[in-house]
Design goal:
The chain is of the alpha/beta class and 361 residues long. Helices cover 34% and strands 23% of the residues.
Amino acid sequence: MEQILVHYDVNQIQERLWYILDQMEIGRELHPSTKVGIKPNLVVAKPADSGATTDPRLVASLIEYLQDHGVKDISIMEGSWVGDSTKRAFEVCGYNELSQHYQVPLVDLKKDTTRKLMDGDTWIEVCTSPLEVDFLINMPVLKAHCQTKITCALKNLKGCIPDREKRRFHTLGLHQPIALLNKLLPQHLIVVDALAGDLTFEEGGNPVAMDRIICGTDPVAIDAYAARLLGYEPPEIEYILLAEKLQVGTRDYTIQEFGTPGQINNTQSTRIHQRLGKYVDAKDACSACYGSLLHALHRYEKRHGPWPQNQRIVIGQGYKKQKGTQIGIGSCTRSFPKHLPGCPPQALDILRFLEETTGSN
């Protein structure tokens, strides 16, 4: 059983991340001679508030933690998707300033040498730099994906292969090579940017504030949890099952939570948010809870069509001790006859509850 640590209330990112890493006793695994590679998600040249890329503030906090533990050899490595430039992504996403401030080099994996790694008769071409570090830290974004439904820890390693291999992955069906890549390229720590990932698409544009940092060491467990946060059963994500079969990790996990979810922040409201939000009455709602509801409503819409307009949904601390005929989401609405407990509930649980309430399951 793997343990996943989650911290809410991330207004002070450094303090929250350091607390989790101390709880995991990561410092014991670090030494002045440890060579560390940090792999963010910079799939496109868009800033983090688009919901597409890893927030540089989170990476900065991680670098400070590593340097505070005496680690000197740190590099940030990434290979953006085939349609974009890693160099441009480093610039647009704020990583050039990060590199200069902390004296940490940026490695464009599109220009890296490669090795062919074998598993039986199957091979995968992998960039050399991630293979040569002692401690690889995977920093994905929790977000949706147009082909694989979600992208998080397992899929983020796809940035560690050259463009020609990325193209070949698609001819191989994507899921199987993603699972195998995670078997061949070991990762030692996963820090998930779950601050505001995209609701519908890996390239960003519809960010949803989830306001949490997620840490663990097992990418299969992390992705199983991520799937539920986005409204999916883990078996719906094929590469999660394939990676588990390859003994990359396990879907069995426990959650240890810290902090209290904060109030809805000023993440850009898009047309999708506005359409889904018109069914919801929110009073002093937390971002983590409201974000999960948006993901659940989006999944409901994909499965069953628009939410019934005569069914109002209430959410937030403003509904504590109130009663009504609406559908309540979260423990703050426990006085409502129809309510789903949880602080915050996961999108998958909300989806199931909404389907049961409307008789759509």
